[in-house]
Amino acid sequence: MKLLVFASLLCLVVAEWETSSNITVTGTVVCQSRRQPGIRIDLMSTGVITNDLLNSTTSTPQGDFTIFGHKKEFGELEPLLYIYHNCRTIRQGCQTRSVYPVPQSDLLGVYDMTFVILDVVTADETAVNCQ
């Protein structure tokens, strides 16, 4: 019986540590001074073991995107934006996945990236979707 009471109290304490966070990210993807339609964009949450997908979208015919993500977790949301493109290829037959951190200061609001220039090499890029 004591174990059941202890477990119930522990669940209540843990639930209090959980926070609900959200973020909206907007921007326009550009390659070689041209807006890029149909670019896949994933909003991820950084995790201890893996990164979790919060939402996914593709850029409009004008290269614009808006993506919203929400998560209830321990601590603050640590969002990342993954952009999959062929503007520059790291390895022949692959796409490039460029990773952009989203500032913590923009949580619960809107982070406007304005123009995301895919020609520029980012610190965290990977070859993906190789054929």
From TrEMBL:
It holds the Pfam family TTR-52. It is found in: Secreted. Its main location: secreted. It comes from the Eukaryota. Residues 1-15 form the signal peptide. InterPro entries: Transthyretin-like, Transthyretin-like_sf. Gene3D superfamilies: 2.60.40.3330. One of its GO terms (cellular component) is extracellular region. Keywords: Secreted, Signal. Belongs to the nematode transthyretin-like family. This is Transthyretin-like family protein. It comes from Mesorhabditis spiculigera.
